[in-house]
Amino acid sequence: MATSPPEPGGPPAGAAPRERDAAGLGRLGATAFVVPALLLIAAFLVFPALWTIYLGATDYRLTGLAAVDPQFVGAENVERALDDDGFTNSLGLTLQFVLGSAVIGQAGLGFAIAWVLRDRRGFGRRLIEAMVLLAWILPSSVIAFLWIALLDRDDGTLNALLSTPGTAWLLEHPMLSLIVFNIWRGTAFSMMLYAAALGNVPPSQLETARLAGASSWQQLRDVVFPRIRGHVLTNLLLISLWTFNDFTPFLLTGGGPEDRTEIMPVFIYETALFGGELGFGAAISVLMLLINLVIAVVYARLLRRRKDVDR
């Protein structure tokens, strides 16, 4: 049986075809592009994580004999952390901070702004969006300085506006001040995500619900929320993890007064660096990582359940 000659420019007869991807790089070329990124991930994520786990199983300190010759102690640091009142206090404060400023504050205010501005056009909308975004993009050190000036006991702007001279907000209401601060600072992300989600809600469905006599709350409950539930869960996952690991409150209160704002990142910082107990601090970091994983798994399961319901 006669065979047709190979096409011009094609592989020689009998040669195995080379595997190529859609970009035409081939396996070797694609690997060459991926390897640098994998090396960076290994150097800046994987290795530090493994090193932290190792440190958490030792009695390593910044000074003393343990700094020269650290000993392996296994899970003793974890057991010590679970029995430590400081760890329990910091965990409770962190959950309070996350719930108040992220889950309720940022998510709620971000949705409210996105909902109010959904049909608005012109300068007013751009001004509000710019003000919200400005709080998000400014460096944390700048924002902390502005809020210290705002809440200052003697010359604070807030006391001048409220005619309450002498009120030390960061001393008398430290956690409330941090929650309001973080809401103001981080609402922009929720606002942008919800604005994009609301743009996917068909206006015809809202109009139909309105003509049927549905109130604004009923429109939100029966039309809007079912369509953006996935966006809501994604937003809650991200802002919860970001807030759980946020160190910025340290710039305002330093964990005080009397450890009333000593959230977990601040507690780890003070334990590992101020106290010099790197091994114990690393063990607390591992526990913090596990808590983050639990939060992520819970949200991931809720998202998966939502997708299964949609099917």
UniProtKB/TrEMBL annotation:
Keyword Flavoprotein: no
Pfam hit, one: BPD_transp_1
GO CC term (a single one): plasma membrane
Protein family: Belongs to the binding-protein-dependent transport system permease family.
UniProt superkingdom: Bacteria
Source organism (scientific name): Streptomyces sedi
Transmembrane spans: 28-54, 97-118, 130-150, 162-184, 228-244, 278-302
Protein name from the UniProt record: Sugar ABC transporter permease
Subcellular location: Cell membrane
Residue ranges of every copy of the ABC transmembrane type-1 domain listed in the record: 87-299
Keyword Transmembrane: yes
Keywords, sorted A to Z: Cell membrane, Membrane, Transmembrane, Transmembrane helix, Transport
GO term, biological process aspect, one: transmembrane transport
Membrane topology classification: Multi-pass membrane protein
